Known about the structure:
This protein is of the alpha+beta class.
Amino acid sequence: MIINKTSSSCGAIITDINLEEGFSNQEMTTLLNSIYEHKCLVIKNQDFSHKGYKRFGSEWGTLIKHMLEYLRAPSFPELMVIGNTEKKDKDDAIRNGAAVWHSDGTYIEDSTTITMLHAKEVPVDGGETLIADLASAYEDLDTKLKKEIENLRALHFYGKAEFDKDEHVPAPIRTKKQKEANPICEKPLVMKHPYSGKKSLYGITHSPFKIIGKSEAETKEILKKLKDFATQDKYIYSHKYEVGDVLLFDNFTTMHRAKSNIDVVNKKRTNSRLLWRLSCKGKPRLLN
């Protein structure tokens, strides 16, 4: 296994490993240490089956079934098929629902830890995922703002935050069951990572709608200030997929989005984008 850091604030590229064929505890330990150090990883040249991908994903924690059932793969409910190639993707609200800054699972009481995206089809142009390094952004905040937010907590609900003009609204809640699946929860604006110990901004986009002890105007001002700071170019890694890539990111120290909206797949499939998504909660197997 070869690991090379990207030239961006976060991220490392990993080559010379075939995870479908299996992996050792030593290799998983290296991957765990790498993601906590670099915040996101790109493992190149993988060709996972459903079985192999589930086996690998389960190493990182307990696999999550997304609250929006219509996003799940029927034969593999922990898997979400993201992109523009499926029948469901004719709906713009589904196809482009990830073109908004978010950290997965900030609206869930038992927070999402690791997410992974496996590229099965990629467009000739576009289709990038942007990763923002929230740990480095936190480190660079001025002392006064750090002190102001250090002990603040926010209330979260799926898709209830303010969005910028260049963002798409999240994939919608459509049923009472989905709405009740994850009630309002409370999360800190500054997260101390449970494994690395690093402090990071956390849950500043997508789902926070009320900072406890602050007015509505103050809430919007603080969240906007933090979001604008954390999405400066110097904190962002832009990943252009190749078929076989597995992009993993630590949701406690990053947020992400699809770079831009995409159209439905064309007849020649030159713009096809198909990613297999798995997300986890809880401890990785080796840390239990």
